[in-house]
Amino acid sequence: MANSRDNDPVWQAALDWVLRAHAQPLDAATAPALAAWLEQDPVHRKAYEEASRVWLLTGLMPPAADRGK
């Protein structure tokens, strides 16, 4: 079953920003673009914060094989 976020362009953009920020530090051109996107709409900031939490939580969760599954 597909997650309802799969078709949500704001969620996808937020997730893309989080992935970019974690792949490598944002450079002088990219950081202002992220800041502008976050300021464009409160929904953007909320989605970015939620995507950041998901990123953090997935990093804290051990793989299923390590959980004895």
How far apart are the first and last residues' alpha carbons, in Å?
22 Å
The gross shape turns out to be globular
Q: Kindly state the number of beta strands.
A: 0
Order of helices and strands: HHH
- Which stretches of 5+ consecutive residues score pLDDT under 50? none
Mean pLDDT: 86
Helix content: 55-70%
Number of helices: 3
Quick one: biggest sheet?
A: none
User: How much of the residues is beta strand, in percent?
Assistant: under 5%
Q: Please compute the radius of gyration using only Cα atoms.
A: 14 Å
Query: Which structural class best describes the helix and strand composition?
Result: mainly alpha
Task: Tell me the layout of helices and strands.
Elements: H1 9-23, H2 30-40, H3 42-60
Helix pairs in contact: 1-3, 2-3
Q: Can you describe what's shown?
A:
With 69 residues, the protein is mainly alpha-helical. Helices cover 65% and strands 0% of the residues. The chain contains 3 helices and no strands. The two termini are 22 Å apart.
Give the tags.
globular; mainly alpha; single chain; 0% strand; 65% helix
In short:
By secondary structure, the chain is an all-alpha fold. The chain is built from 3 helices and no strands.
